[in-house]
Amino acid sequence: MGFFLETLIGGLMAGMLYSLVALGFVLIFKASGVFNFAQGAMVLFAALAMARFAEWIPAWLGLQGSYLGTAAAFVIAGAVMFVVAWLVERLVLRHLVNQEGATLLMATLGIAYVLEGVGASVFGDDIYRINVGMPKEPVFLFEGIFPGGLLINKEDFIAALIAAVLVGLLTLFFQKTTTGRALRAVADDHQAAQSIGIPLNRIWVIVWCVAGLVALVAGVIWGSKLGVQFSLSTVALRALPVVILGGLTSIPGAIIGGLIIGVGEKLSEVYLGPMIGGGIEIWFAYQLALVFLLFRPQGLFGEKIIDRV
Amino acid sequence: MLYRENGQFKTSYAADQQIFPIAQDRWAIIGILVFAFVAVPLLVDEYLFRAILIPFLILSLAALGVNILVGYCGQITLGAGAFMAIGAYAAYNFHIRIEGMPLLVSLLLGGFTTAVVGIFFGIPSLRVRGLYLAVATLAAQFFTDWVFLRIPWFTDNSSSGSVSVSNLHVMGWQINNPVSKYLFCLGFLTIFALLAKNMTRSAIGRQWMAIRDMDVAAEVIGIRPLFAKLSAFAVSSFFIGTAGALWGFVHLASWEPAAFSVDRSFQLLFMVIIGGLGSIMGSFFGAAFIVILPIALNQILPVVGDLTGIEISTAGISHAELIIFGGLIVFFLIKEPHGIARLWSTGKEKLRLWPFPH
Amino acid sequence: MSRQIGEVILDLKQVSLSFGGVKALTDISFDVREHEIRAIIGPNGAGKSSMLNVINGVYRPQLGEIILRGQHFSKMNPYKAAKAGISRTFQNIALFKGMNVIDNLMTGRNLKIRSNLIQQAFWWGAARREELAHRAKVEEVIDFLEIQHIRKTPVGRLPYGLQKRVDLGRALAMEPSILLLDEPMAGMNVEEKQDMCRFILDVNDQFGTTIVLIEHDMAVVMDISDRVVVLDYGKKIGDGEPDAVRANPDVISAYLGASH
User: Fold this and answer.
1) With CB atoms 3.0 to 4.6 Å apart as the test, which of A186, B72, B161, C224 could cross-link to A193 if both were Cys?
2) Is C90 a domain residue?
3) How confident is the model over C56-67, as pLDDT tens digits?
4) C219 and C255 share a domain?
């Protein structure tokens, strides 16, 4: 029982990271109808920026060992993501308004290549660690209930907390602010939104920027857990089933979908894996998504699409 | 002035329905075929065959398959790499498990097996479309990756799915040097391209395009989406699977599942989008572009580095390749979202009217 | 006119259709006789297009049945409808934008094609013969609709009025016995309307095709149709010959607003 719960919690933690990546997907899809394959590359890019600036800034300013350096690195990495968002809108999206889904998807793949290439040339292509000073020591819980208790990382808890706060803030942002309402209007209908004076281009910059910040948070958490390396950019592919499961346009869907996939992957790997040969994590998520596509294409929380003639 | 259709009057519908209704086009295509079959083997060196021409031919064949599905029937696929893998491993199994199986039959059976699997993975297309379908095809991709890596039966119990074939021959003709491999692939491509062209200009092709353009209207005039979509999946998978079998048998000779990863799927989709969706010609253009670009960059970048005095490391070159490749793709999508084939046909239309454009 | 209006060919019995909780059609019955021109009129949102969509199976009504030449269908689907000789045009033109005019019309011949995929791939035997025979048939439709000059133009490039004509052409290429027209003259100028009227009357007269027509232009409707059904808020409020319908007080109030 203890082992099952540990696996479950491990799955929830992994799922939370998927949720964060999926969140970036959903934000951009909601606001621009673009299926952003570059989200993984953005996570990688943001994490690289964070890792390297956290190294460079203390060296430049002599702030050895202080939180100030880390904070400054975070701010600068955020600024970098803003520049990325602005460039993406300027150089790519603006010129592809009203193109077909497939074309836009390919364009984001192009963006992903560029981001990976630039990231590697500017920040280097080794494995880096991000240390934001999160406590690493494990704690044992419920020792009275299970023999030996449950082994859990404090770091994971803090990460989960951060993710929850982020989601809360985003929800507030979407529901309560003028910009948030404009974003939802754009998501519903580009032309109608434009006709009532919502500046499409600025909205896109904002939403890519927000997605960039979400990517930064995801990158920092991931990087401090597992280190920053190039394979991080493939996380976009791991997060795809999540958005299908949760519904492409739903923020809570992304979160819950991420948790389900995270847990499902871990449980299936541990309990089903040994029977059929292991390594089933990734396709398990996709088969789950496939089942959803067949029986509930709009996902858990998405809106149903009705065809009209 | 030479490219004119003036004076070429058609007196029957048969004449009007030829593949190339304009006489100059017919001559040009005959010229290209003669050049490709006769002159190229005499002129080209081994490196070009191995690095460019053979990959180009095989990937063109795969791109044709992808184009039938994506360009003609409007169903996005990100699983083309997986279908190549299925073709390759299916052909491999037929080849080694059945004594004396002729090479051609093995390859085609690889294609047929892929077609059957393709129909199965096409079923979600009856429920979902667009990007949702793309995810369904990714499911196929990751599942096959896993199958060939982990289930030893499919790969003759070899470790991590790496297999090899040798001693290829068709009716006494040894396919062992670059020239024979090139001719073998060229033959395949020529015949398959003709079949693809015929399908796209007859009833089945119109069914696919009708489903692509307006599926409700297609249903109303009596096109069954089930048949149209699944037949597109089947034909497309047959092409891609055969290409995969050729890729494994003829180009690589020994391979493992990584040769057909999701990157291959993306690459094939790039080809048809850059080449031109819904265009046979476009598949060739796209394949040529994607095959030649990295090689060209690899050659050019060090030279540029030397000229400007900047030392570029090997890693630096591969990074720059990524950036330029990504950048060019975006540039292309912006400048000509309908692909190189559209540039080509616009050019031809202008040429037809030249020098009096009005 | 030479044509003879015949027996009831299409009979709708107590059809009700709703989307979620919204009622689009409530308990509607009417019939269509062979060779007649039957109009469906009504204000916007009255359920006219839904009615056509029920007839050719795009929408499935919750209640009611459709009787086509004595055959009962509680559920029609588009394929069955097409097989039974029903073809239609669309309000918002639903042509295949990536194809040229000939190919659009050739899709209308789809049900009559017998050759299989393999024959078509090799352009062999039956496939080749059929392609030529159907092309000849399609050329007849092209001549009939006077669109010879645009036969090889991609339909996406055509002006609105011509697209409407091609839409009609595709329906005619099916050689239907019943033709459903969803606002064939919407958005046209007077000349284009006259042309379209002429085509509709010619189709009806020369081929004896039964026509069910939705139209907003009252002058046109009253002029060319034999009988008219009036819908309002998904209910039938009038049915009969044009003159009778024009005099019907319910119809007048639906169109002019209720007089209190």
Assistant:
1) A186
2) no
3) 999 989 999 999
4) yes
